[in-house]
């Protein structure tokens, strides 16, 4: 269960709530564990709270820039005479070996090689098997699972490799690869293939069939809204030598609740209590059902279940009450949420950090920052130390109101209790500083972050670069962009960021700088597909650099990437205006060859490009007319007032 509150989320893991920031990746998998119930008055720990500090790349050393003095404690905004400050935030070259100090992965090269073969020959099985045989890759434990996971949603590719690998001498599938394959096939809703695979396991590797395998299948059935099929798995398990236990039942109940099947979950809960002798649901089972009611907004049923828990001798814990508080906060029923907190304290169940953080996030989400501060003070008085996520909710509320000084004051208060800003808090302040035009403050926070040993992630770089572009610090934006690429954070191109940066550079007549940025992307081995090439070529063309655009188009085709139809039409049209027949012929012939290789009709390709180009021009002109009409209407209304 995952609920977002003003830039953060609260999750249940093993019956325990976890808090993390919104930019962290939270797996929404509340797995069942019979011994995972939290106790009253539980203090925050790494077990029940997700760390909100994320590091996307490990880098030795910090960026070398001119010293910018100051810390988070300085709250006065500096006076800015010129936002550009040439040289102030320019990056120097880092020592060799610091850009990609990642641990060596023995599988990555083989995984990518196999993945490319699968994509190329997946529809021709004999050629696929021959290509895999001649690839030189040694099939070993761990590799097959990585390949299946690499195929992602294209489960058919993973299945072909799975079948081929099973035929290789000296290799047998292990429990993990079977589990991954069942998960992949279930995601594709190929449930017939899943049962066939389970039958194969029963005959050849019965020892690998475990309850966890069936839990994967149950979750896939539940996510596909096939409730009856999910429940039937319990009846099928004994045929494969597995008896369903409370763990499996808890996972089924949790899966049904997560996928909105709360009615079916409640019926299953009652049915299990009626027919299973000795079945005694524990706190985790109750909390899963309670969470299902709360997420569905059925608060009456949720409170009734809470009463039933007490009658059955299963006292609600902090997680139980926090589930109710979170749901009420999401509905802006803050008074009711406070009543639950008071009831919680009256029952002798002490609220923990997550409970208070949930309340603070609720008040801040609805703009009641003052009340959020009151809860924060109450929390500290009770002896609970807030974490970064607690402060992040308040900072996000200040960000919405453009209150930079208040953010800096709050961070200063954090430091007084020994809590330092994490990557997400720094991100919030940097984003707000640039929004208000305070470039110097944004740069100072970045430098402070790196001095404290926090490695910036992709979100930090994106916000920093967008902020610098917005303040027309283009050279500095390029420095940060190249630093991001050098750290390996541009594996999947950020198309919006790249487009904004390249267009801004070309608008400022910085053609050589823009070429340097593109060369950095290419030379650092980033994944550059047709969309990335199209952004670059179209940016050059739209700013009048037609010959440069054509040159990069030829370079793209040399790299084996065929231009989009409208790109081809646009370049040919531009070359006609320049009377440059030679380049036009060269591009046309290369496109014709690539079309023939891909069995595409060149005439149809050309016509589609011309049609798409006309439609885009028309849409652009229509947009200009609409904006002009809105401006005229705005002036007319202002005049009438």
TrEMBL record:
What residue spans do the PPR repeats cover? Answer: 174-208, 210-244, 245-281, 282-316, 317-351, 352-386, 387-421, 422-456, 529-563
What UniProt keywords are attached to this protein's entry?
Repeat
Q: Where is the composition biased (Polar residues)?
A: 41-57
Which spans does this entry mark as compositional bias, Basic residues? 623-635
Which Gene3D superfamilies does this entry report, sorted A to Z?
Answer: Tetratricopeptide repeat domain
Key word 4Fe-4S present in the record? no
Q: Domain of life of the organism in this record?
A: Eukaryota
In residue numbers, the region (Disordered) covers 33-57, 617-641
Q: Which family does it belong to?
A: Belongs to the PPR family. P subfamily.
- What name appears for this protein in its UniProt entry? Pentatricopeptide repeat-containing protein
